[in-house]
Design a protein that fits this description.
With 503 residues, this protein is of the alpha/beta class. The chain has 20 helices and 14 strands. It has two domains: 28-174 and 351-426, D-Maltodextrin-Binding Protein, domain 2; 179-347 and 439-501, Periplasmic binding protein-like II (D-Maltodextrin-Binding Protein, domain 2), CATH 3.40.190.10. The strands form five sheets. A four-stranded mixed beta sheet has the order 2-1-3-13. Strands 5-8-4-11 form a four-stranded mixed beta sheet, sandwiched between helices.
Length: 503
């Protein structure tokens, strides 16, 4: 059993409190050099597999429902074809949610009582993989990949997986996503016809804010005998992405990692812009967040539009369900809005898969399975069900998608198809971005996710109570949108972020 070298515990933000020497991340160019150097020494090694004595691999993931069914079907196909030919048998297990998976991995690697043995392969986001890598528990995937193979994958996906100090690959890109905007077209159209609201306005964050205010006031006017009952227009999943990508669009890398050293960049004016375009419309009720995900809020009629992952397209509801009945809705899918005047960055997200350090036979077999799974046709079959983007360059096109659908006679949900094809087209002119991994990165991201969101939830409740007592919305929200209110939040936010990363 692999063991952590030091005892550890995690605080409420998930911050790793054990001491860990920071070997850090390196530049992309050095990363690729490291991969190439390792591949040149490793790719010539003899195939250690024996079809007469197949090696058994376990895979842990967090897929559920149709995503799990699609993944399991591909595993079965692999076992019956390439796996049988080469001597590899794969067994896959869902661990539930991402959090459940991370807990299971940490329990296994630390030898917790009752924990299962470490799997051969498991899904992992970069921050978690970085922790495991620091314990020396991840296989060097560069030893099993040559330059020609690496060039088939989108460059930024490979670069994201180079979390080792020597620049070698530790995270195999398997399925990625970005952010999109989904809109309830059925209810958008009468609102737009009555007010002149335009889809063009929704391409910028500032345009979304102004449209949301317009929608709140328009819905409030529908009941002139009831004051202050306007409805929220928009919400977003993953507030952390709003900070990371929003700041990047404004020319600031909030988590800057160079030569193993993290620099926190939290300039006041850029953060003020983020605060004004999220906290302010949230506290006034122009934006909202009610259910577990914003697609849930569209289903209950509490929101008209949201920003979420490409994988959320499959959960966009077919109807709005109200207490008095339900009705069918159509949808619009667009790229996520960006800050006015900002560079067009889009988030690069989605867990990859890592291979546990073990022996050459198991590591080699694990990489063979991952290579097969990420081949264009196999990866796109998974994407057709899951909404995840394929990771090879040749697979990221509507033409290739259509070919795979035709060849395998796949039935693809229109929402998923429209989402994938729109992203394939738009991403050609968009810069993909994800921050580099660093020590306590999970804790830092949780500050971004919850610090402002928790505050605005409490403050909006207070504003609603004041409106219910007879105050106008502007009177009720006034104390919460002042310069002093921003300064107080900014100071507390910076303190929390510095504490999370250990500064």
């Amino acid at each position: 059993m692999l063991q952590w070298n030091e005892r550890q515990y995690y605080d409420k933000y998930g911050r790793n409190r054990r001491y860990m020497k920071n070997t850090g991340r390196i530049t992309t160019s050095l990363c690729l050099v490291g991969i190439l150097a390792a591949s040149l020494t490793g790719c010539g090694s003899k195939n250690p597999l024996d079809p007469d004595n197949p090696v058994s691999l376990t895979v842990w993931h967090y897929y559920n429902g149709s995503q799990q069914a699609a993944f399991d079907a591909l595993v079965e196909e692999f076992n019956d074809s390439v796996g049988r030919e080469k001597g590899i048998y794969v067994q896959s297990y869902s661990q539930g949610s991402v959090s459940d998976l991370e807990t299971a991995v940490r329990d296994s690697i630390s030898g917790a009582v009752g924990a299962e043995e470490m799997p051969d392969i498991f899904s992992s986001y970069a921050d978690t993989a970085y922790e495991v890598e620091q314990a020396g528990a991840l296989a060097n995937l560069s030893e099993y990949m040559d330059e020609e193979e690496l060039q088939k994958y989108i460059d930024s996906y490979i670069a994201e997986g180079c979390i080792a100090a020597d620049g070698t690959l530790r995270i195999f890109p398997t399925a990625k996503s970005t952010e999109i905007m989904m809109i309830n077209k059925t209810d958008w159209e009468p609102f737009a016809a009555a007010t002149g609201a335009s889809l063009e306005d929704l391409k910028t964050i500032e345009g979304v804010v102004s449209t949301a205010q317009m929608y709140y006031e328009w819905t409030d006017d529908q009941t002139p005998d009831v004051a202050g009952d306007g409805m929220a227009f928009y919400g977003r999943d993953a507030v952390a992405n709003y900070f990371i990508i929003g700041m990047q669009q404004l020319g600031v890398e909030i988590f800057q990692v160079e030569n193993g050293k993290l620099t926190l960049n939290t300039p006041k004016e850029e953060l003020r812009r983020l605060w004004e375009n999220y906290y302010v419309p949230m506290v006034k009720g122009y934006f909202g967040a009610y259910g577990s995900f914003r697609s849930d809020d569209v289903k209950t009629g509490d929101l008209l539009a949201y920003t979420g992952s490409t994988t959320s397209a499959m959960y966009f509801p077919d109807q709005v369900e109200l207490d008095e009945g339900s009705y069918a809705i159509e949808y619009i899918v667009m790229m996520a809005p960006i800050f006015e005047g900002g560079e067009h960055y889009a988030v690069q997200q989605g867990a990859g898969m890592v291979v546990s350090k073990s022996d050459e036979q198991h590591e080699y077999a694990a990489v063979e399975f991952l290579k097969w799974f990420t081949e264009a046709e196999n990866n796109l079959q998974f994407g057709c069900v899951s909404g995840y983007l394929p990771v090879m360059k040749e697979a990221n096109s509507a033409e290739k998608l259509d070919q795979v659908i035709a060849d395998h006679q796949l039935e693809v949900a229109p929402k998923t198809y429209d989402c994938l094809t729109m992203v394939f087209q738009e991403m050609e002119s968009v810069k993909r971005y994800t921050n580099k991994s660093f020590e306590n990165g999970s804790a830092a991201r949780k500050v971004l996710e919850y610090h402002l969101a928790d505050q605005v939830a409490a403050d909006h409740e207070a504003v609603e109570a004041a409106v219910a007592e007879g105050k106008s919305l502007e009177e009720a929200a006034g104390p919460y949108v002042t310069e002093e209110a921003f300064e107080n939040w900014y100071t507390a936010f910076c303190d929390a972020l510095n504490s999370a990363v250990g500064e």
